[in-house]
């Protein structure tokens, strides 16, 4: 929701009261009949312990929430050759007994597979008699390498039917019951409908594993403005639940960036019914409008379309809702013209979309956006009321066969689409809906604690403040960057400066949760947005947990987290916070995130202890190939890490050197440490039984990676066969005083990994380097061993096998960090 004005985003007939919510706070209006229990309410949520897993699952910990169990720190073999959905199905079949599933998975329907920055989430819905069971799902999270890392399940084992298995009322009659509920809510004898309702049969479970057949009816209406979700008992016709799922709240052009207050630092500016003046005109700025369709002069483009949909009636006082349309693609309008708001919307939404794709990395290997890779529809003048909202899933794209939503902006007070903060807030709802459909409106029938709407509202405010933080008057922003909706709120706010809300408040969980029934998700969202804003703060290198993650890293982790949230039975802030900690492999980031959520009371107790999360992944910091035949050559910038061992006589030995920054890891807390490398190319000359490859800890982690490549010697300092730090790698001379000889190493502790002809691109090889890490090692040399004679004698430069002219000629190339950071060498560390 945007602004809590006129119409609440949650109109639940099952509540005792229907609340209209304004910018100033909640106020009661008409009473309506009570039809059932609350859908959402706020209370202190007890966070279940992370108990050790004792079943046959390859996971370390389990949290048993009221209606869902989460298994974390799972570890399965890598598998890059199969689709994530196939790997997930195989995993569920293999562990069906431990998860209390049918062995053949015949009652699980594959819903979707969502790819985030570094993982895939595959979701399955439980069915019964080929109909979906509401809020009964299983989801599998996998790393980019195909490992299963996390499981969420709300599967209902041994479910039984309560009542008839065939509907006692027709689809048409169910839709009439839904419309009757909307009629009661609106007080209108004939609510104006948009299109035809969509209806389907499903099963609704109770707490005793009993299933009741229900109709789900989804109805769009103009008066009252809504997208109503109604749940009806298919036997009795009783309305179990009814809620409104509307989420309220290249050419050139002139726009607000983001609004006149923020850019001018003049707090007394007023809208005056769209009247323009010199001061306000000076707050318009030239922008480049990217991605415009070449076949039209309207504002329709790659990521935004403000021309396709129109309000049924134009809400402007002059009755003119004219589209921005210019053959020269110069969209210069003043704020008293209807076209101006369209330009502001196009610029704001397109800019955020490109930030997600191009700056934060939400794109696939072809550069396509992985969030909303299609035009977002928007109506600049949707209503004469002072409200804006996102309508989810209201039109179908015929080419994509999927439902998509529309952004709607109101003209009451200050035209909402004149304030880019409001636009970005609404677009934030669209982002979440695309990442995780159905999660942030609150799932289906959820009669329990559900803070998903507060999380959604908090994120909307956060994204608006974060994206516009560096825009506008620097003096104003130095104190009021956390103010959201500075311009729009001048028509109703009583604060100075005027703000819809701020993201730097002092609210604390749970004592500051809204006590109204139902609670105001905007007020509760202020707790979530404040925690996110603290994550957004600059990094403090001296005292990391006193600082934040930095703007772009915070935006990236916060948005990426939405992919992985499972809202089967609602979701709480604590669940979302724990998921964010799970989703980063960086130990410092985990501690910073944990600290911010603990400061807000969202996490408590054991979950506020550093290291509660037992698993981290550390990517290689520096890597290079060492060439015996060219002992003064550096390859620190090469995309390949090559391993070869033909013979010392032929001088064709190639070893690999790897360095990691794990200086902040406490060795005594380590349970296991694993070094992982990914195959790029295999020569398939490893013999019938293969050959071992060993990793040996370097006596010193000090070496310079250098900038040499396969074809260019590089310049400056770098590591070579002769030197850990050659001061001039460009001259092909030995420029050091050390006796390096291909790497000064200690005896190995890790068992060597046998390389065979069967290794293929994408396969991973691993070594257990636990003892090395416990001993303080942070750098390793990777070398070939001798399968026949054993590799215990591997030390400084050569092995017994390398002295044998007739040993196998196996050669292998691994991915370097310069080639693909996803497949780069890494350490995987678990803690006690």
From TrEMBL:
GO terms for biological process, alphabetical: proteolysis
Keywords: Hydrolase, Metal-binding, Metalloprotease, Protease, Signal, Zinc
One annotated GO molecular function: metalloendopeptidase activity
UniProt domain FTP: residue ranges: 119-154
GO cellular component: extracellular space
Gene3D superfamilies: 3.10.450.490, Neutral Protease Domain 2
Protein name (Swiss-Prot/TrEMBL): Unannotated protein
Organism the protein comes from: freshwater metagenome
